[in-house]
Amino acid sequence: xxxxxxxxxxxxxxxxxxxxxxxxxxxxxxxxxxxxxxxxxxxxxxxxxxxxxxxxxxxxxxxxxxxxxxxxxxxxxxxxxxxxxxxxxxxxxxxxxxxxxxxxxxxxxxxxxxxxxxxxxxxxxxxxxxxxxxxxxxxxxxxxxxxxxxxxxxxxxxxxxxxxxxxxxxxxxxxxxxxxxxxxxxxxxxxxxxxxxxxxxxxxxxxxxxxxxxxxxxxxxxxxxxxxxxxxxxxxxxxxxxxxxxxxxxxxxxxxxxxxxxxxxxxxxxxxxxxxxxxxxxxxxxxxxxxxxxxxxxxxxxxxxxxxxxxxxxxxxxxxxxxxxxxxxxxxxxxxxxxxxxxxxxxxxxxxxxxxxxxxxxxxxxxxxxxxxxxxxxxxxxxxxxxxxxxxxxxxxxxxxxxxxxxxxxxxxxxxxxxxxxxxxxxxxxxxxxxxxxxxxxxxxxxxxxxxxxxxxxxxxxxxxxxxxxxxxxxxxxxxxxxxxxxxxxxxxxxxxxxxxxxxxxxxxxxxxxxxxxxxxxxxxxxxxxxxxxxxxxxxxxxxxxxxxxxxxxxxxxxxxxxxxxxxxxxxxxxxxxxxxxxxxxxxxxxxxxxxxxxxxxxxxxxxxxxxxxxxxxxxxxxxxxxxxxxxxxxxxxxxxxxxxxxxxxxxx
Length: 653
Hints:
The protein is α/β, with parallel strands linked by helices. The chain has 4 domains: about 1-65, no CATH class; about 65-255, Tetratricopeptide repeat domain (Serine Threonine Protein Phosphatase 5, Tetratricopeptide repeat), CATH 1.25.40.10; about 260-465, 3-Layer(aba) Sandwich (Rossmann fold); about 470-650, Nucleotide cyclase, GGDEF domain (Alpha-Beta Plaits, 2-Layer Sandwich), CATH 3.30.70.1230. It has 27 helices and 16 strands. Strands 9, 10, 11, 12, 13, 14, 15 and 16 form an 8-stranded mixed beta sheet that branches. α4 (about 60-70) packs parallel to α6, α10 (about 150-165) runs parallel beside α12 (about 195-205) and α12 (about 195-205) packs parallel to α14. The protein is globular. The chain starts with 11 loop residues before the first helix and ends in an 8-residue tail after the last strand.
């Protein structure tokens, strides 16, 4: 079983909901933040630290933890900015410099060009050097233990950065120093995880591969080891191992680490009475449950992502809960209609089991909180969002998620398991498949008086009402508004309009597909897209057009920036008699609009739904976490991300 299982605490989210922020000390915020980091809840940890900083301004530890959580969540640029502010305020501590260096190291890893890589490497080494006191090393015999405990981390990372910057002699020199510090601490009775892991890394950098493997195994086998620690250690170990020409070295190092077990699931619903062809009858439930449990054990599953339809979804969630694992449930629309659509249909006790897994879930997400309306596209969209969230979790723990399916191999319909498998294979690895046909063959003989039938995708709707319900389609919505338009001299307005609309028109012409809808008013712009990638591309094109443009001819010597927001979801499409064309409406259009006023000028803010979709199949784009922010006009509080192109350039600073 995965190392992650014993450390999981799904009640952490509940603890945060019940947390008395106003009455809590900085130490209490810090304690909850550290718990969340330890189990890989990095985004929530950042929100806790940020909330603490609102009440306990300039608390150094909370600021460090907020930045640390951002870095772990894959937001090194945001983390580096936060830490640079801390250094500028006078903080010269080892931990702050080491965290800042770590952020620059992440930027170095993801830099898009050689010049940026060199600059980020220099910044990382310089900050690690700030954190590493050579006096502490040269005077090992007289140094206090506490001094040594702060030295091995920056020391080993200086070695790592020199090693990957081509400075092999310096890399080995610092690896030797780090190894000696760890040996001295162990000789004094220290058995800390990080000391053991650092010793292993030093040995690997020095070429002692077998000794390194032994030390890594010792480290991850220690009691009370947190999954986030293992993820961080494994990531760096595999980077080093990959630099060796011998491919067996990477395999050896990889074998030292347990999997963390992020698993997405999809499978067939239980057969519905009234159809003639059995696919997953109730008689096969127990066999299916055992097959799922066996697969989860094999995969080391500890963090599960699934919907909650009657049948294998609920069996998966129940099996995960029995393992003490996290469960993240995704529903395509309102709970009450989902029960009627996808749970009650099977009869028996499925509704009570559904309520039970929801009550015990780590989190429950709704693609839309509105109704079904007979739109099976919501099931497909829910699958995409679910897989994206699993990918986002893997990003934080540096592990590719796995897909487990209970499937008969048939293509099925929209939103079904077959469709999901095809998408997964395109973007990730091969899924683990439980053969539904073999399970059916092994099931006890069915009562001939009962006729079961299976549907690939659940369908429920009072068909007589279907004609009275306006259909929705999945769309991507983009809103943009120019910052500083009010500063423009009135006489320059015609020039601005020409330049503003001209820039948008040029950006639109570069897209592969024409937007479904565009509209402008004053200095604002609204567009709707069938495809997410078109919206993402236009958002960054507009950002760069305004940020990089020359606006001095309009009297704007400080330039002009644009605020852009994006969200994706089901939207109503109806003819607009004022515009004389189809327009788009609904809560998800409103959500995109409510994000725009809170956007930092010169940035693109996107919803968590968009961030999840980017994580699953949009390699040219990336994002960093901004925080859980209040949207405009009391729309509510939502996780918000900043959009960027994949990779980093030093010029982006």
